[in-house]
Write a structure and sequence with these properties.
The protein has 247 residues and is of the alpha+beta class. The protein contains three helices and twelve strands, in the order ααβββββββββββαβ.
Amino acid sequence: MLLGLDIDMAIAYKLDLSACFLADKNKPQCCGRVHVGAHEEYMKKAAIAFVFVLLAGCSAGTQTTNQASSDTRGVVLPQQAARPTVVLSPVYDPVGRCRTIYEDSDYMFVARDYGPKGTQIPGLFVFSHKMKKWMEIKELSTEEAKLGRSPTLEEGRCSVGWDYSGLRNTDYAKIPLMTSGSLNFPDKICYAADSATYFLQFNSSWNIDAVLTQFIVKKGDLDKAFGKQETSLPHQGAEGGAVNRAP
């Protein structure tokens, strides 16, 4: 209430003083001694009122800013979604000449190239011993992948070249990988029981860190994918029937 009164008084006096000066521009002293004293008094009050208004405005602004920064109602906060490490597709037995890369009590990984006559469709396949079913590994996530390149001349001679660093800009890499003139399958697969993770390594035989390409496949992703597979597909190849395993 006091603040409002001081502001009103300051405004009223400013209007009154302006009127006096307009009445006689050449004689500002016409206001008299009493008016001059009132002018000084009102100016003091106006200054005090201005300070209060300034402080009140700053306080209100700070409160509004703090409220806006802490109030998340109606705001969808970003959450990191861990995408599946592998994209699988149900298939029949991968008939033809296949090469077993890795096998344990849960899963078997095999690769199929074009074959001696070039009539086979290349692919990387995984077999579930528990579910007795096959699935094809179509894509692998690049989220935690190590993406290598072909060796330099100093590191060794190689008839083909590759550089998978560009796959970092995509969510998934299509399998099999491609070089400048060939298919590229994992040459080694390891399993880490502590993290329930398969490590699919490409070109590991070079024993050069910059050349190595590696993808991870979570066992849980395989379990989930095979558990959702409703169609019962033939699995005679699992025991070496239709699948001709290369030595």
